[in-house]
Amino acid sequence: MLNFKDMVENSYYSKKLTALRLKRCYEIASPRIKQYLEAEIQYVLNHIQHDDIVLELGCGYGRVITRLAKRAKKVYGIDTSEESITLALETLDDLSNVELLNMNAIDLNFPDQMFDLVIAIQNSISAFNVDPHKLISESIRVTKSGGKVLLSSYSSKIWDARLDWFIKQSEEGLLGEIDLEKTGKGVIICKDGFKATTYTRADFFNLAKELRLKTTIEEIDESSVFCVIFVY
Q1: Which of 80, 121, 187, 208 could form a disulfide with 213 if both were Cys (CB 3.0 to 4.6 A apart)?
Q2: Alpha carbon distance 49, 51 (integer Å)
Q3: Taking the model in full, what pTM does it have?
């Protein structure tokens, strides 16, 4: 059974911070945050071949998937928010190689070894608020041998810009009021119970060690930490 903290965090991304409200978060992002977001997308695009079948976990309203669809043969996007999926379908109706589904990342209704690349970026490994072991295991299950899983989180070097971004979101009523006394060291806490954490290079390394994964971990643009899992 979910405790109160888990219920608050899950409700943010499945019910509260969805669709147009989620889109607004990105519209008010500072130039530095927009640079970070673009750097993440470019990093992912560099891992896609034109005949790849790609899965994006937590696709939201389709911000990233539009870019993926221009590079890959076929792209699937899943999200727990029906509202976000609905907005994405309205926005992406002209992309014939995209399929969007309401689905949970730790319970994927796909066959084994279906995808060449599975991605969960923009700190999704934290934002999903699920067991990371289950998230990774399920991602690997649906990835082809020779394929990859890409996970990302924030670099500590973008902390100031990240905090400013969350404060802007709070000021617009997209998030609860930031508790500045409790916020720090990569963790942002709102007074309504919402908590945004971060996975460090060490955290990714420990996960890889626990699950006996072959990985590379690298920092991009002094803003993202990427964990690339090689499936074999």
Answers
A1: 208
A2: 6
A3: 0.92
